[in-house]
Amino acid sequence: MWAIGIACAQCAEPAAAGTLDEVIVTAQRSPVALVGFPGSATRIAGDELELNAPTHSSELLNRAAGAMIQRGSGQESLTALRSPVLTGAGACGAVLVLEDGIPIRPVGSCNVNALFEVNVEQAAAVELLRGPASALYGSSAVHGIVNVIPPRPDELPRLGVAIEAGSDDYRRVRLAASGGTGARAFGIALHATDDGGWREASGFSEQKLSAVWVSPAAAGELVLRLSASNLAQETAGFITGDNAYRDRALARSNPNPEAYRDAHSARFAAHYRGAGGFEWRAILRSSRMDFLQHFLLGQPLEDNGQDSAGVMLAWTRPAAGGELMLGLDAELAASTLFQFQENPTTGGTPAANAIRPAGAHYDYAVDSALAAGYAQWRRPVSARWSAELGARFEWTRYDYDNRMLDGNTDENGVPCPGGCLYSRPADRSDDFSNFAPRAALVFRATDPLTAYGSLARGFRAPEVTELYRLQRQQSVANLDSERVDAAELGLRWRSAAFSANLAAFHMDKRDVILRDAAGFNVSGGRTRHRGVEYEGDWRFAPGWSLAAAGTLARHEYRFSAAVEQGEQITAGNDVDTAPRQLHALRLRRAAATWSAELEWLRVGAYWTNAANTARYGGHQLLNLRAAWRPHPAWSLALRAANLADTAYADRADFAFGGHRYFPGRGRAIFVELGWRED
Questions:
Q1: Does some domain include residue 10?
Q2: How many Å separate Cα 616 from the centre of its chain?
Q3: Mean pLDDT within 598-627
Q4: CA 68, CA 575: separation in Å to the nearest integer?
Q5: Any idea what the Cα angle at residue 239 is, between residues 288 and 171, rounded to 5°?
Q6: Nearest one of 606, 519, 528 to 564, comparing CA atoms
Q7: In a domain, 494, yes or no
Q8: Which one of 4, 187, 303, 453 has the largest count of C-beta atoms within 10 Å of its C-beta?
Q9: How far is Cα 516 from Cα 522, in angstroms, rounded to an integer?
Q10: How many domains does one find in the chain?
């Protein structure tokens, strides 16, 4: 745990005036004090991040209000941030994943499992912004942002190593090193994990790298970063049957031992911040993934890839008594997708088997381009009031090239009875233009108390797969961008002993993309999201603190329609997989040579289908983490996940006429020995 030794200079510490001056970088694309930010944000860093030492991103991100990361098999995940847990081709477009402020994927090619491509395990900080942030960040910043911030050289030890072992043949090695002289320095953090898997045939091997070089350049600073990830995973599928997760033997089983996922990614980024408020970022990205779609009849293989390059320019200067930030973003990308089924389909009814032929189903390439400009102006209105106005215009273009026969025949042009399931559009181009305004007010009522209000719009252009991976008789998907209009009111309290955030939000989302009863991808869905979020941290005695975070919210359908698999959406129903309550409570103790944390998590009940006829009752978990540092160079950490050995479901769903679950892991113990040289 101490091998990485991250000491975040911007984490919350008592300031001289007795208040907590926490700094975040995601909210304005540069460091700002959280106390003056008109929105909801959570920063996890420093000792809090080290003690957590996550083996999966859900263990860290679920500490924040409004967040529910559902763990799938291995390192897979589904994300909810001030939203339901969304699934399907566009689910990943609801929350934007950044690495050091830069999207990790090009527009239209996101990955629902995006968090396994970033080194959350060795980050200097992870910041979560809740609510739309499209005025600054553009497409996919609809419900929020997760920004993983890698460490700088001065946040790493000269040399450190940690060796960890855990339940079910879990093994992990973490390394970190740094060097250099003066303002020129370099650092590297990497880890390698082998997990035997707590379910049958569900192990994985994973490696991640974060490297950084910092140097003065032209009266400013240049930061170069290299990030890479590699995952080779055996995948476990859903278990089926009402409350099947309560059967311990069934929970450990794997109905799909043949399933797998192999993925790797690499990113090279440069960030220059100069004098006069000018800065630029440039990025080169590449990612590949192939996996068995064990959840589909016929179990076709998918192989997809993305290569992209982008630049982000920003200039901040005084203007009209305030501060004006102007920016330009541009991106070019090339994406491919190939789907192939080796054997004839045999797992369904004769009619279902007949429309799923063996051979190639899709083989296409998409070249995409993005250009965007934005402006944001902040100005004090009086001694206690300040205002913020911002807007972004973004243009996206896709050029699609079908490399197979057009239509819904098999790969040789032979039709299926009634038409094959997989439909390939003819070559085409699509353009999307979006405008996202934002306005906010901040009122500094007293030294510890701040109030704010904001109005914002979020959007996402359709994903490439929603436009071109069609089914049945659909030859063209005439889709619009999804949009959400949001209002938020918040209170923020900061003092030496107590800090708290309280926010009420209302979000109306329209042009939601879905697959209708005919199997067509269409726009036109509407949902509403309303609720209250809270976070608090009370230092009630020297070395003792109590922290809480939670959400009381309702996510509901605002339209009625029949959708795929014969499911019926009715206006006024809850969106499925959207618990109305999420809560977390953590009791912490920190002493000179040791620290510990007892965590209680509660996920409330939720409907598992759109018709609101099937329900999961929710669950409660206890986690324990402790670390002992008997010598400045040595540390020993113990983590116990699901301390009470509760039977629960990480994900509950109702589909194809029955209940199905990703079962939650029982009690698991992890022990880590670390050494570091500063």
A1: no
A2: 23
A3: 97
A4: 15
A5: 55
A6: 519
A7: yes
A8: 4
A9: 7
A10: 1
3-state secondary structure 224-261: EEEEEEEEEEECCCCEECCCHHHCHHHHCCCCCCCCEE
| Domain membership flag for residue 6 | no
Q: CB–CB of 639/596 below 8 Å?
A: no
**Six-digit token string for 642:** 């699901």
pLDDT digits (tens, 9 = 90+) for 359-412: 999 999 999 999 999 999 999 999 999 999 999 999 999 999 999 999 999 999
Does 83 fall in a domain? yes
Dist CA 557 CA 528 (whole Å)? 6
CA 459 to chain centre: 16
Give the separation between CA 653 and CA 397, rounded to whole angstroms: 35
Which residues make beta-bridge pairs with 229? 208, 265
Domain CATH for 154: 2.40.170.20
User: CA-to-CA distance for 595 and 543, rounded, in angstroms?
Assistant: 9
Beta bridge partners of 646: none
What is the reported pTM?
0.95
Closest residue by Cα to residue 4 from 166, 188, 226, 195: 188
pLDDT in tens, 163-176: 999 999 999 999 99
Q: State residue 495 phi and psi, 5-degree precision.
A: -145, 175
Q: Transcribe 345-374 into DSSP letters.
A: --SS-HHHHHTS-SEEEEEEEEEEEEEEEE
Range of the domain at 393: 23-677
Confidence category of residue 22, pLDDT binned at 50, 70, 90: confident
The per-residue DSSP string of 269-327 comes to: EEEEE-GGGEEEEEEEEEEEEEEE-TTSTT--EEEEEEEEEEEEEEEEEEETTEEEEEE
